[in-house]
Each structure stands twice: as C-alpha cells, then as structure tokens.
Design a protein that fits this description.
The complex is a heterodimer of chains A (about 150) and B (about 500).
Chain A: E1 7-10, H1 14-25, E2 33-36, H2 39-46, E3 62-65, H3 74-82, E4 92-96, H4 101-110, E5 114-117, H5 122-139, H6 146-150
Parallel strand pairs in A: 1-2, 1-3, 3-4, 4-5
Helix pairs in contact in A: 1-5, 2-3
Chain B: H1 4-13, H2 17-23, H3 25-38, H4 41-107, H5 114-133, H6 138-168, H7 174-179, H8 183-297, H9 303-334, E1 340-343, H10 344-354, H11 356-359, E2 364-368, E3 373-376, H12 378-395, E4 402-412, E5 415-422, H13 454-464, E6 469-473, E7 479-486
Parallel strand pairs in B: 2-4
Antiparallel strand pairs in B: 1-3, 4-5, 5-7, 6-7
Classes of the chains: A alpha/beta (about 150), B alpha+beta (about 500).
C-alpha cells in the first residue's frame, strides 16, 4: 500500500481546495491527494522537477484540473499532458466554474476525459467531488504505469 | 362720417405696399423652404423635373408654332413670287398683243395677229392661274376679278376692231390703229396690275419681317430651353451628389458603429465569462463553509444560529441561481442560431411530455389549436414554450382547475402569432412593460418562485427570430402571452 497512486488536484484557490479536501475526507481519500496551486506546479509534479524533484516516480491516478490558474492555465496543462506519450494515459477531469461552450469544446478537443462544472451548492459540490474521487480513485482501473516499467 | 368712410379703405393702402413687398415674401419663402425640406429627395427631384419639363414643353410648343409660321410664310412667299412673275407675263402678253393688233390694223398683214391669237388662247389659263394664286386673299381676288373683266373687254374690243378691218378695210379702223382699240382698258389693266403687284410686295415684306421676328424668337427660346436643361442637369447632379455623399457618410458611420458594437459584444463576452468563473467561486465558498460550520458546531448551536446559517446558505444558492440565469440569458443573445423548419405542434408535445412530472396532482384542461410550421432554431423555440408553459402552470397553481390554451392566429400573411393563455392570477396591465424585463417580477418570491428571467429569455429569443412579444391580462383574470414569428416565403 506504500505505492498507492495519488490524486492530483490542481486548484489555485485555497478555499476551493479545502472544500474539495473536506469532501474527500469522508471517503478517507484526502490523504492520497496532492494539491498544486498553479499550472506550473502541476507540470513540475508530473515531470518530477523543482519542488517535486525527489518525489516517488509514477503518474497520478487522475488529475483534477481547474481551467483558470496563474502562470500556466488549465488548457495549457491539458495540452502538455495529452501531447506527451508518457503522460497521455493519465485521466484528466476538468473541474471548473465555467460552463462556457468554448471552454467545453476546447477541453474535449484537447483530450479531456471528463468535464465537471463546480456546483455553487455545497452539498452538490461535495457529492460531485466525492463521486469523482471514488470513480477515478477507486472504481476506475488506471492505465498500466509505463514510467514505472521504464525505471 | 360720410367723408371718413371712403377714405378709410384708401388710407391703409398707401403705407401697406412698403411692408407688404419687403416683409411678406420672407415668411412665404421661409414656409416654402420649410415645405421643400420636408419633401423627400425623390419628391424634390420629381418636382424639379416636372417644372423643367413643363418649361421645355412650353418652349417646344412656341418653337413649333414659330416654325409653322415660317413654313406657311415661305409657302405664301413662293406663291407671291409666282404671282409677281405671272403678272409680268400677262402684262407682256397684253402689250405684245396690243402692238401686233395695231400693226395688223395698219398693214392687214395676217402674221401680226399671231400674238393676239395666242394671247386669246392662253388668257383663260393665265386668269385661272391668277385666281388660284390669290384665292387666300379676298382683296387681291377682287382685283383679279376687275382685271379679268378689263382684259375681257380689251380683247373683245380688239376682236371687234379686227373684224371691222377685215370687213371695211383700213380707213374704217384708222383712228383705232393710231390710239389702240381699248386704250382706256389697257391703262386700267396696267394700274390694276400695279396695285396687285404692290399689295403682293407689301405682304411679302410684312412676312419677311414676321419671319425674322419669329426666327429670333425661336432662337431665344431654344437658348432658354438649353439653359433650362443645363439647370436641370446641374440640379440633378447636385441632388444625386448630395444623396450619394449622405449615403456614403451613413454607410461609414454604420460601419463604424458596427465595429464599436462588435467590440462592445466582445467585452460583454469577456465580462460574462469572468462572471461565470469568478463570481461563482466566492458563493461556493460561502455555502461550503456555512455547511462545514454547521457540521463542525451543529450540536453546540441553538435553533436561531442554525437558522442564520441556513439563511446564509440559501442566499448563496439563490445568487448562484441568479448568476446561472443571467449567463443563460447572455448566452441566448450570442449563441449561433439554426434556421430550420420547426413543427411547433411536435415541439409543444415534447415540452408537455418533459413537464409531465410538474403536472402530477394538477387538474388542467388543455385547449390546443393546430400550430403552423415556422423557420427557426428548434432548441431556442423549445425554450420559449418551456418558459411560457411553466409560467402558465406556475401562475395557475392556486386554481382548482387550471385552463391553459395554446393556439395561433394569422392576422397578416407575413407572420404568425402564437399565444399561451391561462386562467391564473394574471397581472395588472399597468405593469405590462415590466413583464419581459430581466429579473422583473410582479409577484413576491414567497408567492411564486423564480428569478424573473424566463420572459426576458422569451423576448430575446423571439427578437432574434425577427418577431415580437406582448401580453394581455388583468388581475386575477388570467393572462395571455403572445409572440409573433415571421413566416418564411417557402412556408406560406
């Protein structure tokens, strides 16, 4: 169980992050969550560089990606992930406030695996985050870790 | 009094012309100008054309008349010249006859009678010709008649003298041979001929003067006509130029405004994007932390504090709903529109099917008239019916039996009018203008739920389809909501 794959939550807003973690806590998956506060940090984590240079290698089980983030925005991160052969298998769920058609279209065009609009209502939000975490973190069988085999 | 009376009407006349001439035209001109400026450009051009056309017609008529006079004069002239020539010939013939006749009387030589015989033979022809040439002028005609009689008498006298010479010999006609057989007649003949000739010459001269006058007249008129046409061309050029410049200016302005509008639209899009993204986050936090708080300290809180927390949550949710509605409304205005044939009957059926959960436990009598086919965006038109029908359902909730009628009227061939009528709580017509506004509500939110965006969406969708929306109602008497849609040519 030491090699349990983490969930990567990219969320620039600490309150949203806290609320998301509160939702995940109920299912005891909060401790498997790595929170990144901007797009650059997400890429650092995925490529094991900067602050994450010494982390255990391996891809996260899922990436929850906010669209609007400082430095590198969600769509840019998504583009990078989906155009990199080793990162491409990671499921990416867009978790955002935007319901704009162009955002939806662009996300799916870049290869997002799901698109979830954050509900304003906390109970709905909590349900959404819980269900997502349970589905992607527990129910869904992740792709075989190609980076582990190369190491 | 008797002296004053005749003076009073005279008195004002003397001072009046001065202001009358100097002041009266100014307001008259002003009114004329005002009147003209109210005219459309087409009307002004037409009026100008009409005036100039009338001028040209008058000029043409006068020129035509002048030219006819010239033609008539030249005909009369040639007649006069012929007459003058003919008179000369007649005169010469008569002189030659007289001379020949006298020689015959003296010598008895038959060959001297050659002129006499030919003149006698030709004279009727000459006279007929003369009568023909003077037939338009009675005065000359009577002179010709006199001439005819005199010539007859002269030729007659000569004939008699010739007979006597043949019968009685030279002695009998000696005095005649010396003085001439009809000396008096011949003299009178010459004087009548001179009269004829003189009258004809005078008429000729008069006609020459008249022709010259009317030629000058015609030239002047033609000049005036050319000038008028020039004025016409110039004014037409001016008007068209003015119009074209104005149109160019308007087109440039329109283009400019279009660009501004596009920029404003882009800005609005960016605005609504940031609203959708940024405004919802704090709301989520308010609701989230309120929920976390009630979970963490729920046991320790009293009822009042729990109610406060609930109110915080409810308000945040309500604002979230408002923002979502606003975003839908804004998207409705920007979204690309489809244009396909939409079967409204089918559309209403599916809407009612989708609403069947809301209809449970309600007694509703539906009246449906057949609806036409229209051109439009099916999803948007569906939204219109969803909004209108849920409104009707909502505002008839207090009625034991709701009556909802959906139908269409076709008042003119270019558009159809569709209505949704209910027997609900209705509204006061005094607020009819507020009905279709964004977030305008005519009822308290604890009476009927809703944010007040539904009818605003209806209006926006119908406007984008090129139609109109309006409503009729009375307080507690139900309401009717109408919208019109233009009918496509192919669907008429």
């Amino acid at each position: 169980m030491t090699t349990v794959k983490p969930i990567l939550l990219a969320e620039d807003n600490p309150r949203d992050a806290e609320l998301a973690l509160a939702a995940m806590e109920e299912h005891h998956i909060a401790d498997k969550v790595v929170v990144c506060h901007d797009g650059a940090e997400v890429l650092d984590y995925l490529y094991c560089r900067g602050a994450f240079a010494s982390r255990e290698p391996g891809n996260p089980v899922v990436v929850f990606l906010d669209l609007k983030m400082p430095k590198v925005d969600g769509l840019e991160v998504l583009r990078t992930i989906k155009s990199d052969v080793t990162l491409k298998p990671i499921p990416v769920v867009m978790l955002t406030s935007s319901r704009e058609e162009c955002d939806l279209a662009q996300s799916y065009a870049l290869g997002a695996n799901a698109y979830v609009v954050k509900p304003v209502e906390f109970h709905q939000f909590i349900t959404a985050v819980k269900e997502l975490s349970v589905f992607w973190g527990i129910i869904n069988e992740p792709p075989p870790d190609s980076s582990a085999s190369t190491n | 009094m008797a002296f004053v009376a005749p003076q009073s009407p005279v008195m004002p006349i003397t001072p009046e012309p001065a202001p009358g001439t100097s002041q009266a035209p100014t307001p008259k001109n002003g009114r004329l100008m005002e009147w003209l400026t109210h005219w459309s450009i087409e009307r002004r051009v037409l009026a100008g054309f009409g005036l100039v056309f009338a001028g040209i017609v008058v000029i043409s008529a006068i020129s035509y008349r002048n030219t006819s006079v010239l033609i008539e004069n030249s005909r009369l002239d040639s007649k006069s010249h012929e007459l003058v020539q003919l008179l000369e010939s007649v005169s010469e013939a008569l002189d030659a006859t007289e001379r020949g006749h006298r020689r015959y009387l003296v010598t008895g030589e038959e060959s001297y009678l050659k002129f006499y015989r030919s003149t006698v033979e030709q004279m009727p022809e000459y006279l007929r010709y003369l009568r023909g040439l003077t037939n338009e002028w009675p005065e000359q005609q009577s002179r010709v008649a006199t001439l005819e009689a005199l010539i007859d008498r002269q030729l007659d006298a000569e004939a008699r003298a010739i007979t006597r010479r043949e019968k009685d010999g030279y002695e009998a006609v000696r005095h005649l041979a010396l003085s001439g057989a009809a000396k008096n007649e011949l003299e009178r003949i010459h004087s009548v001929m001179t009269e004829l000739d003189g009258a004809e010459q005078r008429a000729l001269q008069a006609r020459v003067r008249q022709s010259a006058g009317s030629t000058r007249n015609t030239i002047a008129l033609l000049g005036l006509g050319a000038l008028l046409q020039l004025v016409l061309l110039a004014s037409v050029y001016f008007l068209i130029h003015h119009d074209v410049t104005e149109r160019r200016r308007v087109a440039a302005e329109l283009e400019n405004r279009g660009e501004l509008l596009q920029a404003a639209n882009k800005e609005l899009e960016a605005f609504s994007y940031s609203v959708s993204h940024d405004l919802r986050a704090p709301l989520r936090h308010i609701d989230g932390y309120a929920a976390l708080l009630s979970k963490a300290a729920g046991e320790a809180l009293n009822d009042k504090a729990r109610r406060y927390l609930q109110t915080i949550s409810d308000s945040a949710k309500q604002m979230g709903q408002l923002i979502d509605d606003l975003l839908v409304f804004s998207r409705m205005g920007r979204q690309d529109m489809l244009r396909t044939t939409v079967n409204l009957d089918q559309l209403v059926k599916t809407v009612l099917h989708d609403l069947h959960l809301d209809l449970q436990g309600r007694t509703i009598s539906w009246t449906m008239s057949p609806l036409p086919l229209v051109l439009g965006d099916p999803a948007m038109l569906r939204q219109v019916f969803v909004n209108l029908i849920t409104n009707a359902l909502k505002f008839t909730a207090t009625r034991p039996e709701a009556k909802i009628e959906i139908g269409a009227t076709k008042r003119n061939p270019s558009e159809v009018e569709i209505f949704v009528r209910d027997n609900g709580v209705g509204f006061d017509m005094q607020y009819v203008n507020k009905l279709f506004g964004v977030f305008q509500r005519l009822h308290r939110s604890d009476e009927f739920e809703g944010t007040g965006i539904g009818l605003a969406n209806v209006r926006r969708i119908i406007h984008r389809h090129g139609g109109r929306t309006w409503a009729e109602g009375a307080l507690d008497q139900g309401a009717t909501f109408y919208f019109s849609l233009p009918v496509a040519r192919s669907l008429k």
